[in-house]
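re: ur question from yesterday

yeah so i grabbed the chain u mentioned. its 57 aa long if i counted rite. heres the sequnce exactly as i have it in my notes:
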Amino acid sequence: MRDLPVATQGATLDEVTQNLREAIALHLEDEDLEALGFTPNPPIIVSFEMEPLRAQA
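ran it thru and got these structure tokens back, copy pasting raw so excuse formatting
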């Protein structure tokens, strides 16, 4: 498993997922994925932070 220095954000989880896929693709563009140790269609494992929801008065 390799860590990539990629960060993104979005208004919804679906938007974040799409933005993350695009960010990873751009980060690895023109790289030899096999030389980097990546298999075809590797899984993406993500950790994320969310702001806590606050009750509205």
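noticed a couple things. The mean pLDDT is 84. also The CA atoms of residues 4 and 28 lie 9 Å apart.
anyway ttyl
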